[in-house]
């Protein structure tokens, strides 16, 4: 591709689409490259309740993303479906090599996201957003007064489990070992919580149900014994949350950008260590990974890209 874009955005989740909307409104020539469908993690979320000003009750991830996509296109953002396999980031022109084409830009916004590590049980994919979740902040409200199970034993798993006790009537941590890996201070709080229970030396083997998650089979890691757990008859369903870590999609930039455990380091204005390269959304080092913070990151990154382009026009 011979065209030199003012900005190329890698990824079409909330951060990438917000960046596309803002860069388009800044009258920058903009290309959004996404290898799969728009939305990232939010595209598999049935309901959203915590995005400010959402237009309809019972907002779904796909419906919200569809409007974001339309907005970005309305303001002139072009689209390409491609998988980028190599990048050259140094210098005034950034080059991206895909399986279909080669792309050039003055600035690059990386919004490739971070995705939760799967629980690793049978039929897990069937119940994503239908009982299986990886975000307590996003989905806790949907499980009010229900039983909830949390897979994991580190700081995040235990902290999220304690957060879930504010909504669920009972929360059980499923851990493959016989002791938690979380910090002792976090463990002390957890063991004092009367709504928090523990299932040691256990992994989830298979999920059960038709349209929604209504049961599971767990396996004892020491004996191999399988046990079936069904939701209470009066509930018909329960929640299963996985907190065993995230995989940031940053492999493409290893050795080029400063990172922390795979997350790209930026300042408050989304600048990376390479001039003209920005990161936005879940891919960057940050405290909270939500739709609203991703969208804000994208808007800031686009503003900084416009400033960079303007300063380097001459």
From TrEMBL:
Binds 1 FAD per subunit. Signal peptide: none annotated. GO terms for molecular function: thioredoxin-disulfide reductase (NADPH) activity. The keyword Disulfide bond applies. Keywords: Disulfide bond, FAD, Flavoprotein, NADP, Oxidoreductase, Redox-active center. Its EC number is 1.8.1.9. Its cofactor is FAD. It catalyses: [thioredoxin]-dithiol + NADP(+) = [thioredoxin]-disulfide + NADPH + H(+). It comes from the Bacteria. Residues 5-298 form the FAD/NAD(P)-binding domain. The keyword Disulfide bond applies. InterPro entries: FAD/NAD-bd_sf, FAD/NAD-binding_dom, Ferredoxin-NADP_redctase_2, Pyr_nucl-diS_OxRdtase_2_AS, Thioredox_Rdtase. NCBIfam families: TRX_reduct. Belongs to the class-II pyridine nucleotide-disulfide oxidoreductase family. Homodimer. This is Thioredoxin reductase. It comes from Enterocloster hominis (ex Liu et al. 2021).
